[in-house]
Amino acid sequence: MRRAITYPLVALGAAASTIVVASPALAHGYVSSPPSRQSLCATGGVADCGQIQFEPQSVEGVKGLKSCDGGVAGFSVLSDESRDWPAKSVAGKVTFTWVMTARHRTSNWEYFVGGKKVATVDGGNAQPDAVVNHTVDLSAFPGRQKVLAVWNIGDTANAFYSCVDLNVGGGGGTVPSTPSDPPPSSEPTKPADPKPADPKPAPPVEEKPTQAPAKGDWAANVSYKTGDKVKFKGQTYECRQGHTSLSSWEPSIYTLALWLPL
Questions:
Q1: In the prediction, which pLDDT does 184 show?
Q2: Tally: H helices and E strands in the chain
Q3: DSSP secondary-structure letter at 180?
Q4: Residue 197 region, left (φ>0) first, then alpha (ψ -120 to 50), else beta?
Q5: How crowded is the C-beta side of 56, counted as CA atoms within 13 Å?
Q6: How many angstroms separate the first and last alpha carbons of the chain?
Q7: For a surface tag, which of 41, 51, 68, 72 has the fewest beta carbons within 10 Å of its beta carbon?
Q8: Quick check: 219 and 210 in contact, CB under 8 A?
Q9: What is the rounded distance in angstroms from the CA atom of residue 12 to the CA atom of residue 103?
Q10: How many CB atoms lie within 10 A of CB 151?
Q11: Dist CA 114 CA 122 (whole Å)
């Protein structure tokens, strides 16, 4: 009688274990700088993106994909090459900034250009920080490139995907041409009148980086530093990780990695 009861319980436990493994990762994240396609959608840099503009951190699919949308039909706009995505001009070495709005143990991060893997960063199967930076050498890929950045979760079959459009080695303005010498004149050139000296020169203006006040209502597109306190919907939050806020990074359940409710 005891054996008849034990076996069904074991079978039930095995089934429950299968359900847990198949569940989606409790993690969310994406590349915010240089701006990924979903970041451009979230900040309004690219319009008419659909649902992804409200949840740029949610491009999740099985590992091994090479698509910008992670195989999610609702985010297919991210794979639409006809939208002429803006390309950020960068030098040969590029620092990619990931924002983890819900952190999870990490296998590694991978970077691809044209389907070729150009960098792998080991995650050590550890929980990452709320903001993670990777510097990748792209000097061998000059010109306009689409970089696929992948965050592989450590204990599930899923990964998060971000595509970043870059102009590698681009930027800088054109050098103005030197004007030709004026033709010689038959009349002697008069010396220019000296300019009167400014009796009271203006003092130099000291430039200071813009940063958020320590207290106040939370707002998007503001640079917050660790320890800053803000209010959002009547609740006070403290910044846990310095970052520049986006409209989708409100101090809520998805951004507890960045904000601590007080």
A1: 44
A2: 2, 14
A3: P
A4: beta
A5: 29
A6: 54
A7: 51
A8: no
A9: 30
A10: 29
A11: 22
Tokens of 191: 């010396």
Instruction: Detail the DSSP E strand segments found in the chain.
Output: 28-33, 60-62, 88-90, 93-102, 106-113, 116-126, 131-137, 143-153, 158-168, 223-224, 229-232, 235-239, 243-244, 259-261
Q: How confident is the prediction along the chain (262 residues), in pLDDT tens digits per residue?
A: 444 443 333 333 333 333 333 334 445 899 999 999 999 999 899 999 999 999 999 999 999 999 999 999 999 999 999 998 999 999 999 999 999 887 889 999 999 999 999 999 999 999 999 899 999 999 999 999 999 999 999 989 999 999 999 999 975 333 333 333 444 444 444 555 555 544 454 444 443 444 555 468 988 878 788 889 998 888 888 887 677 777 667 776 555 567 777 8
Token pair recorded at residue 204: 């130099």
The DSSP output letter for 186 is S
Amino acid at 52: I
CA angle 250, 251, 257 (to 5 degrees): 115
Token pair of 168 as six digits: 């590698």
Q: How far apart are CA 235 and CA 217, in angstroms?
A: 10
The 10 Å CB-count burial string (b at 16+, else e) for 178-203 is: eeeeeeeeeeeeeeeeeeeeeeeeee
